[in-house]
Amino acid sequence: MTAFTEADIHAGANGQSYERGSSYHRSGAVSDVVRRGNVLTARVQGSDYAPYEIVVTLLDDESIGDTSCTCPYDWDGYCKHIVAVLLTVLHGEKITVKPELDTLLAGLTEAQLRRIIRTVAADQPTFAAAIEQEVEWLKTTPVADVASTTPAAHGITFDITAIRREIRKDIRQAGATGGGSGYSDRYWDDEEAG
User: Fold this and answer.
1) Containing H/E element for 31?
2) How do beta strands 30-36 and 39-44 pair?
3) How far apart are CA 182 and CA 46, in angstroms?
4) Rounded to two decimals, what is the model's pTM?
5) Is the dihedral of CA 137, 161, 62, 156 positive or negative?
6) String of b and e for 136-147 (b: at least 16 CB within 10 Å)?
7) Counting beta carbons within 10 angstroms of the beta carbon of residue 165, is it exposed (0 to 12), middle (13 to 18) or buried (19 or more)?
8) Which residues pair with 53 in a beta bridge?
9) Sheet of 95-98, strand order
10) Rounded to the nearest 5°, which phi and psi values hold at 55?
């Protein structure tokens, strides 16, 4: 199912993150692992009250591509939560395979699609903002085949991992300038911080 190994996971994380992630994996902290095409999503119960949300995109050859976690870690490779999820996937444990989005939406009418969009946007305001952005892109970017199910290429390349890292850094700095340590609104994980 995957082309990566424990050595690949270990190489992508520092020693402490790998050991902690391995412990999280063994203790059953990983839940809700879903594979939809090349995208894996999961939750890991960590030191915060709410579980951390992890997304792993596999490359076409099934090796590890982009990874993200909602925890504040961004020092040296994969965080312990990503390590735990990758180990869970590697060992084929608790993975639910779901159809890709194109397959899921195939055959739906325009009215059904509109209903889905309105329902999801009502629950998740950022979804409406993302739709608005895509509509703006469609207005400014010529699309050869309007009926195509392939998203329009915007002609802009970017490194999403670097952007996430910079956003996390900016959020931490903004919290630090607001007074105190910047961590007053959530639990501080001393082990995570090193």
Assistant:
1) strand 30-36
2) antiparallel
3) 19
4) 0.65
5) positive
6) eeeeeeeeeeee
7) middle
8) 43
9) 64-69, 52-58, 39-44, 30-36, 95-98
10) -130, 130
CB atoms within 10 A of CB 71: 20
Encoded tokens for 109: 């009418």
SS3 169: helix
Identity at 108, one-letter amino acid code: L
Please write the tens of the pLDDT for every residue from 82-132: 999 999 999 987 899 999 988 989 989 999 999 999 899 888 888 888 888
* Amino acid in the structure at residue 187: Y
89 Cβ contact list (under 8 Å, min separation 6): 1, 2, 33, 35, 40, 56, 95
CB count, 10 Å around CB of 178? 11
Cβ–Cβ < 8 Å for 134, 141: no
Contact 93, 64 (CB under 8 A): no
